[in-house]
Design goal:
Layout (H helix, E strand, L loop, with lengths): L4 H4 L3 H17 L3 H7 L4 H8 L8 H11 L3 H12 L6 E4 L10 H8 L2 E6 L10 H11 L5 H14 L1 H4 L6 E7 H5 L5 H14 L5 E6 L14 E5 L2 E3 L2 E2 L4 E4 L4 E5 L2 H17 L3 H17 L2
Parallel strand pairs: 2-3, 3-4
Antiparallel strand pairs: 1-9, 2-5, 5-8, 6-7, 8-9
Helix pairs in contact: 2-5, 3-4, 5-6, 8-9, 12-14
Amino acid sequence: MTQPIAEAGSTLPRRQLGRYLLEWRNRAGYTQTKAAQLLEMGATSLGRLEKGENSRIKSRDIQAACDLYGVPEDLTAGLVGLAKQANVKNWWHQYGDLIPKDFDVYVGLEAAASKVVTYQPDLVPGLLQIADYDRSLVSHIWPDDSPEEWERRVQLKMQRQRIITRRTQPVSLDAVVGEAALRRVTGSRNIMAAQLRHLADRSTEDNVELRILPFEAGFPGGTSMPPFVLLQYGDSAPGEPVEPPVVFLEGIVGNMYIEDADDVANFSRSFDRLKNGALDGNDSRQMLRQIAREHESGR
């Protein structure tokens, strides 16, 4: 059966590549028509490239666009890598492969989402971490980096969080967090107390729904689910998503991005089971504040 054109032109690498090209063209001050003229391609072709709709992408065209727009060399390498993977549906971004390790594909996807759905059994979700909690993590993840580099990474995380705190169209966040994330001490007990109170406060906001999955809930669905993020992009018309949703699985040596509709639906159903097994919003806040008091008392 022939794949629908809309779906065939919507793979993640293409969409992410298109976003970067559009952003850097605007930064450089070129209209689409002028940029296309200088790149010796049709304006329609450039427009399709920026929308992630081109079925065939030439690396030399991406290199030429990056040169024209003044894209930094390291980012250019990442964009050329995306172009080489542009026809893959579900793909594994392995560090050190075509795409450089420091090229963060996920951040751009997250920033463009209208809703972030996440299950985190052991860690506080990144969009809800306080700076001190994140500092204690980055110093262990990158032990050989300088304190200045640790702080740069922390500030990048804090900037990411603006998508849920901005006044205009903040991203909706729907999170289920395992009880282990509340009790496992990261940094210090005082940091954990502050972090849990932050979670309780954030969960009162209209665009944030946070539920705690207690130990006593067991394994909703009968299996142990890994941490995952489901990114959704809203609808342009009833039943027609602006972009297909993406499931993100983070790994030590690389990250998996899943776009297959059936696979995404399975993750969505798993999240619903986890959410149904979790405490409701009020009980979750009570648990957060209770465990925060336990951390402060040293219990």
